[in-house]
Amino acid sequence: QQQVKQSPQSLIVQKGGISIINCAYENTAFDYFPWYQQFPGKGPALLIAIRPDVSEKKEGRFTISFNKSAKQFSLHIMDSQPGDSATYFCAASRGSYIPTFGRGTSLIVHP
Amino acid sequence: GAVVSQHPSWVICKSGTSVKIECRSLDFQATTMFWYRQFPKQSLMLMATSNEGSKATYEQGVEKDKFLINHASLTLSTLTVTSAHPEDSSFYICSADWDRSYEQYFGPGTRLTVT
Fold first, then answer.
1. What are A33-59's pLDDT values in tens digits?
2. Residues of chain B found within 8 Å of residue A102, distances taken between Cβ atoms
3. CB B99 within 8 A of CB B25
4. Could you give the CA distance from residue B93 to residue B99 in angstroms, rounded to a whole number?
């Protein structure tokens, strides 16, 4: 049973555009929702994370929107750049327990 | 801060041999270390969780006799792939958390190719 569903599987965006990746979860006990960025041949790196007590968190060009009632959260990348081309994973965890990862989204930003 | 290293970054070995991968937390003492496996264009698959000085907890379907995990100190965990076969070829990634925080810090990964 996949507890965190991520979409789309792949995304192509023009430079300067907005990239949007969505995730939905099932376990209402989850209380930490991080996004990871992974470049080819590298390990994932924490990009931004949110807790369910806020509906939005912004760090630079990256924003997480969180909808607790719908059990959904999304990553928005504003002014997308070719250097943002990577695979993005959403995740969800309960307390300090091991996170459950989404299947990943391969983002390509065309120059 | 919170840097995790892995060694080697890539390794090629012959079928039937064993390979050891090291995972180190460089600037913090890790409460727990995790080992993941990742196939091309797929998500991370948790293999096992280890705490210093205790036996690793393996996920269902992961052969503990094949993937030996040793967590000798608060900064070092090793994964040994025993009697490796081509189907063990994969990208192995470790991660560590600190003081049971919510965040996991990932290593750069190790590419294993078994010929």
1. 999 999 999 999 999 999 999 999 999
2. 43
3. no
4. 20
CA atoms within 13 A on the CB side of B59: 11
Q: Check whether A5 has a pLDDT greater than 60.
A: yes
Contact status, residue A76 vs residue A65, Cβ threshold 8 Å: yes
pLDDT greater than 70 at residue A96: no
Cβ atoms < 10 Å from Cβ of A111:
8
Distance between CA atoms of residues B29 and B75, nearest Å: 5
Cα separation, A39 vs B36, whole angstroms: 16
Helix (H, G, I), strand (E, B) or coil at A57: strand
Interface of chain B toward chain A, CB-CB under 8 angstroms: 4, 6, 34, 41-44, 46, 49, 91, 93, 95, 97, 100-109, 111
Give pLDDT, residue A60.
Answer: 96
Q: Which of A43, A46, A99 is facing B93, going by the closest CB pair?
A: A43
Peptide bond into A40 cis (omega under 30): no
